[in-house]
Predict the 3D structure of the following.
Amino acid sequence: MAKITENTREEVAAIVRDFFAEECEVDKSRIDDTTNIIKDLDGDSLMFLELIEIFKKKYNLDIELKVIGKYAVKHPVTTIGQLIDMQMLIIEHENRLLDLDNKN
């Protein structure tokens, strides 16, 4: 589990925006929290997997893709903001991500 700081969300957001700007060949200034990954950027699920790998290395995360997949089925992501929020949960909770649903 990575330590979450005040700057973590900003750091994650910058990585996500830079990634999609490069992969989708769009100006980063066109990407904000409301940008739809598929409709606005022509993004796909493989990009999400690439991002997971980037964050796993950056934050030394121990999380299985099947855990993320199960969580994502119940909590689909369509916008950049939602993706950033989910990534923050992954960083904070790792393989305990599915436990969040049991708390509700």
